[in-house]
Amino acid sequence: MNTNNQRITRRSVMAAGWASTLAAPALGQGANRPIRIGHVSPRTGPLAAFGEADAFVQEGILRAIGQGIRVGNRIHPVQILSRDSQSNPSRAAEVAAELILRDRVDLITAAAAPDTVNPVSDQAEVNEVPCITTNCPWQPYFFGRRGDPQRGFEWTWHFFWGLEDVIDAFLALWSGAETNKVVGGLFPNDADGNAWGDSRLGLPPALARNGYRLIDTGRFQPFSNDFTAQISAFKAANVQIVTGNLTPPDFATFWTQAGQQGFRPKIVTIGKALLFPSAVAALGERGHGLSTEIWWTPSHPFRSGLTGQTARELAAAYTQATGRPWTQPVGYQHALFEVAIDVLKRAERLEPRAILDAIRRTDYRSIIGPVRWGSGPVKNVAKTLLVAGQWKRRPNGAFDLVVTTNATAPEIPVGGQLELLD
Amino acid sequence: MSAERPFRIARASTSSRIGLGLVGLLFLLLAAAPWWAGRQDLRLLAEIYAYIALASLWNLLAGYAGLVSVGQQAFVGLGGYALFALALFGGVGPLWTIPLAGLIGALVAVPVALLVFRLRGAYFAIGTWVVAEVFRLLASQISSLGGGSGTSLPAAVVTSIAATRHAREQLIYWVALGLLVLVLGAVVLLLRSRHGLALAAVRDDEVAAGSCGVEVGRAKLLVYVLAAGGAAMLGALIFLQKLRISPDAAFSVNDWTAVVIFIAVIGGLGRVEGPIIGTLVYFLLRETLAPYGSLYLLVLGVVAIAVMLFARQGIWGAIADRTGWHLFPLERRVILPARSSSAGIGRPAADPHRAHSFALAGLIGGAALVMAGAQAAADRMADGKGPWAACRGPESCCGSPAQPDHAAMVQGRLRPDSDPAARGVLEPPPPQSPSSCGGHARACRSPNEPG
């Protein structure tokens, strides 16, 4: 179709060559043009842990597709063109534009934090290319892009949970514990911190409604190296619960200084910093008992609609292939491609409008649970399930993430009880 | 006239006449690009123009006025933010924000110049960087523009440029080409004017120029304000294409200064042609080495350092010295009627003091790129455990007081030289420093954040 007038450049040849190593089984079809799925995620830089599973997931997806997928009445091979955002929003915008303009992808996908998801979505919206993203709470995605809830976006679609889910999950986590309900908030001046600490939509009003007192010392510059001001304020107010959204290095700094300065809260529930086993293991014994939000675990009772694998099988395959423990983004990266393939299979023709229609009609059961647009808080957002839990240290030093509350999503099994620190 | 003066000053030469003709032809060809190039090519060309323009402005600063600024990202970012503020709150059409951004950049540059002109050489370089960091921190406090998170340009604003996507892309492309012509034209005209003669004198020897009656301070201010205004216009254009701005991206020292220094230095400082050649080399390297990830930045850094050590005049400098070619009629040659011999006074003198400040510039740029590459490599190495796993508690890296490792890198290795001009000289970085400490610490931080 489009391939005739596509100019052959050195890059496109290299990209095709590179993609074909991934898509090896899909080659040899010849007759029908390949479907190109663009993918942007951070493979290097501070967000690299989110992109850790990319290669593994893409291999599995392409293996499951085999010869290709049927669109209309033709079988098209599938290529996934994956690009590194270097955790840099400028770079993410650039590679997204390249995928759209040079590689002419049919569908573009992106994952991991507003820094990747938002610039890619912006490029897709302006260039009128269907776009599916995940792995970023929907408020920073939607309001961070100046979305208007009345009108929404045209080309860009997102599935993930939102701040209201985190708030519910955290409140459910704390509700069983005996505390004085005084909460210390740590919100940096970045996309996530501003959204979580927002006085209208964030944690502060929700905590007040539920009888918690919030001690918020204000937004601080990320990568601070001194949390003394916050720790003194928390100690003075007798804070027993600490919450917020921090990067792992910031949390490590805070938590070490809290220890040195004799601040001992009963519960520490932090977003983002405690997602990855490596970040928690780096804290040593002081990692035990920290709690966080949980979007996906091997015990989630879901099965991939594409490969038929269960969550546990996928996690086991990941550990076997890479020698690394499972992480939460593994499930979501997998689901992102599952949804993309499902959309393309349902598209009537290989053109942007038809693919867009297929996205709108999505009703899919993925390895992270159901994904369906239309019932979310705004037009372009589909919500996914969220629970909360706690890291527990095994005697050998490894950490397990255990779901301790499922009030927000009863279908997800609870694995243990919340233990208080100290 | 010639009766009174037994000589005349020639500016054009055969090569510059041919050169100008070629430049004119090339311009016509490029202006017609929307009819012969694909969408991605247009975007790439627009990016190339922006970098040639940025590098030309930096060349004017460092190569002519001796102002080695490491803080031009302050004005690029300012221009980008001006675009967002004017388009979102002022309802100004996005393309109209570009000249306004230039005006704002030039106005802001005046008080900044009063501040940073109190510093010299290496101190000036660091001072401008500090100013850019202050701008970045200020931008992250503006919550209506997203604070530290940044914000996007709504699609409605972008589509207000022109109804169809095709018309929009053409228009943005022509604006980019127009800006390049404007910047190059302004640089050439400035250098041909009497200010240009003053600048050439300042470039060759500041003290001697001052003693001949050149107002060194005013000449420098003029250049600084022009460069700031130009950088701000380019910033607005760049972020109009990126559609999203955040303080880290807008005030990125790597994207808007280190790369620009690399381009100007390898192309040849103190020559108008240098940045053009440098940009072509940079994009050639970038487009061929990009698939190799972090290696690419390391190669850029090594190339910059090698050029500074072995070919300080840059690529165009080496060509022009051997052939006498000039694309632009900027050289002033004295032609004596008796003998047809001439003496050029337009070419940079091989002044050892000034060469130091070029070396400083090149090495800062090179070292910054090497650091960025090493950081990316460190990230990749830490891949096994995730990048953050590299932090074994705050003491090991993130919480250490030596936060600004980029700054520390420059400060640590900059020393006032013993030469009478007391210019800063940058030593090549010790081989293991980026990987042992700097790279390690960088692995925990955003790549745009110099500290």
Detailed description of the structure:
- With 422 residues, chain A is of the alpha/beta class.
- Chain A has two domains: 10-161 and 298-382, Rossmann fold, CATH 3.40.50; 164-294 and 386-405, Response regulator (Rossmann fold, 3-Layer(aba) Sandwich), CATH 3.40.50.
- In chain A, 36% of the residues lie in helices and 19% in strands.
- Chain A is built from 14 helices and 17 strands.
- Chain A has helices at 10-22, 54-65, 89-101, 113-127, 138-142, 163-175, 191-196, 203-209, 228-236, 248-260, 277-281, 311-322, 328-346, 352-360; strands spanning 35-41, 69-71, 74-76, 78-84, 107-111, 131-134, 156-159, 182-186, 213-216, 241-245, 267-271, 291-294, 363-366, 369-372, 381-382, 387-393, 399-405.
- In chain A, helix 3 packs parallel to helix 4.
- Chain A is globular.
- Chain B is mainly alpha-helical and 451 residues long.
- Chain B has 20 helices and seven strands.
- In chain B, the strands form three sheets. Chain B has a three-stranded antiparallel beta sheet with strand order 1-4-5, with no helix packed on it. A two-stranded antiparallel ribbon of chain B has the order 2-3.
- In chain B, helix 15 (294-310) packs antiparallel against helix 17.
- At the A-B interface, helix 1, helix 3, helix 4, helix 7 and helix 10 of A face helix 3, strand 2, helix 7, helix 17 and helix 18 of B.
Which properties best describe this structure?
heterodimer; A: 422 residues; alpha/beta; Rossmann fold; 6-stranded parallel beta sheet; 4-stranded parallel beta sheet; 14 helices; 17 strands; B: 451 residues; mainly alpha; 3-stranded antiparallel beta sheet; two-stranded antiparallel sheet; 20 helices; globular; disordered C terminus
Short description:
The complex is a heterodimer of chains A (422) and B (451). By secondary structure, chain A is of the alpha/beta class. Helices cover 36% and strands 19% of the residues of chain A.
